[in-house]
Amino acid sequence: MIKQKNIMQLKQSLFTFFTLSLLLMSCQKSAIGPAANSTATEQMAGNSMKQSLASTQTFNEGFESASKTAYAAADVTFDSGSWNLNDALVGTSTSDSKTGSHSIRIRNTGTLSMNFDVSTGASTVTMSYAVYGADGSSAFQLWVSSNGGSSYTQVGTTTVTASSTTLSTATFTVNQSGSLRFQLRKTTGGTNRINIDNFIINSFDSGSGGTGGSTADNTNLLLGNPSGATNSIVNPDNYLMDQTYFTESYNRDQGKPNWVSWYVGGTSLGAIDRSDDFRADTNLPSGWYEVSNTSYTGSGFDRGHNCPSADRTSTTAANQATFLMDNMMPQAPRNNEQTWANLEAYGRTLVTAGNEIYVVMGSYGSGGTGSNGSATTIDGGHVVVPSNIWKVIVVIPNGNNDLSRITSATRVIAVNTPNINTISIDWTQYITTVKDIENATGYTLLSNLPASVRTALETKKDAGTSM
Predict the structure, then answer these.
(1) pLDDT value at position 207?
(2) What CA–CA distance (Å, rounded) separates 242 from 247?
(3) Which among 60, 61, 182 is positioned nearest to 118, based on CA atoms?
(4) What pLDDT does 177 receive?
(5) Which of 9, 205, 290, 314 could form a disulfide with 123 if both were Cys (CB 3.0 to 4.6 A apart)?
(6) Strand pairing of 160-162 and 355-364?
């Protein structure tokens, strides 16, 4: 991760981003044409509104611009603003894990606190963390204040443990609007020290999705909750997780999602490079097995994305979210790298051609065939290899009031493939119906649509497209 050294560079980047966004919107009208049944003025207004919903990086604080050599509490002004370091200092030694030359070093139950608010709210907060030198493990939490620091509440319920001297990334899902400030609290480990670096706040994204039955435009669960998943730990094999950039039903005992649901529009796609930072999700409930970046090693199966990396290229945080291991399933290499890659790319061409798509994807069954032959589980039985992988894509022209614009004439692409390594690379060979997928999984897809519309769409079989 590249550190930002100068706040003026950040301001210039943001200015450039918004300027280019406006230019692109003016160019897109002639390139992709207006949405059906809308005037040019309405289309421009719709694009402008959806552009404003995109999550952007508020700042990336690398702690490079100031120094503090003692642990005693004091305020320090970095590029992003004033921070209070209590039982913490700015580490610069060879034993400090860091990107660049500085990172924060915290001991005991020290804190790293913002003395300022960000008015953008926050979708996610990410940071790099590691153990200092030869010290033992320590844990920390993130807390948020919406009243100028008068009181704080913990972000989620997760306590992150640092146990390695190699920098790892912790992602905290906030999904909160308004003026916020954050405080990192070291909670365990005594005099063991930890390093914190690359503190990133990504703005609140009102179009990024949510865990409820929201019918607002661009929300991940616009089409419905297929399995009635809930975020209760008493329901571990149908556990609802809002990952900001996608929403999923996670299956603890299978180590993979049952299904993942997300939205792709013009603001979802940008120029961010693939992050490739496969990692365990430390936000899983306490005691749950965390599938790791090495869990698939030697298995003959790919770490197959449900929500693809290339569907989330608007910001670094959006792309990194797709590399959480609970967005993965064991997928036969040919299935993943060719058949599904072609289908995913086709979905994005629909978006660049002037549409927005709502996608729900999942897997079911047990037993697939990868490059090493057949298997029913990997990772010592912690991860089930599915027999089938499916996806449903609902396609509508750019516009507003999305749910009401889905009719019995709307295009729906339903695909169901065997999870084998001898699969055809032509995904159109595996086109099916929504009803067939529902029968195979027991789910109710498109449940937020009026019954008459859902019934009509369930039995439509798409004509596909040439490869």
Answers:
(1) 42
(2) 5
(3) 182
(4) 84
(5) 205
(6) unpaired
CA atoms within 13 Å, Cβ hemisphere of 235: 13
Distances (CA, A) of 27 to 22, 44, 332, 360: 9, 11, 40, 30
- Mean pLDDT to the nearest integer, 48-67: 68
The DSSP H or E segment spanning 12 is helix 7-32
Q: Is 8 exposed, middle or buried (0-12, 13-18, 19+ CB in 10 A)?
A: exposed
Which H or E run includes 350?
Answer: helix 341-352
46 — pLDDT class (breaks 50, 70, 90): very low
CB crowding 134-153: b at 16 or more within 10 Å, else e: ebeebbbbbbbbbeeeeebe
Residue 56: what pLDDT?
Answer: 62
Give the amino acid at 307: C
Please give the sequence-ordered ranges of beta strands (E in DSSP) within 133-278, or none if there are none: 138-145, 153-154, 160-162, 168-176, 181-188, 194-202, 239-242, 247-251, 256-264
**3-state DSSP helix/strand/coil % of the chain, to nearest 5:** 20, 35, 45
Which 3-state string (H, E, C) describes 361-405? EEEECCCEEECCEEECEEHHHCEECCCEEEEEEEEEECCCCHHHH
Nearest by Cα to 282 from 145, 140, 165: 140
- pLDDT for position 208: 43
pLDDT exceeds cutoff 50 at 44: no
- Collapsing DSSP to helix, strand or coil, 460 comes out as coil
Comparing CA positions, the residue from 76, 203, 186, 57 lying closest to residue 132 is 186
| Residue 382 is among the residues annotated as catalytic for this protein | no
Residue 442 clears pLDDT 70, i.e. is over it: yes
Question: How confident is the model over 157-184, as pLDDT tens digits?
Answer: 778 999 999 998 888 888 788 899 999 9
Mean pLDDT in residue range 346-368:
97
Write b or e for each residue in 188-200: b if 16 or more Cβ atoms lie within 10 A of its Cβ, otherwise e.
ebeebbbbbbbbb
User: How far does CA 153 lie from the centroid of its chain?
Assistant: 23
Contacts of 401-408 with CB under 8 Å at 24 or more apart are: 401/217, 402/217, 402/218, 402/222, 402/356, 402/358, 403/215, 403/222, 403/448, 403/449, 406/449, 406/453, 406/457, 407/453, 408/452, 408/453, 408/456, 408/457
CA nearest to 215, candidates 448, 51, 48, 457: 448
Residue of 181, 305, 312, 391 with catalytic role: 305
The angle, 0 to 180 degrees and rounded to 10, between the axes of the packed helices 451-458 and 434-441 is 90
pLDDT score, position 330: 98
Exposure of 273 by Cβ count < 10 A (0-12 exposed, 13-18 middle, 19+ buried)?
exposed
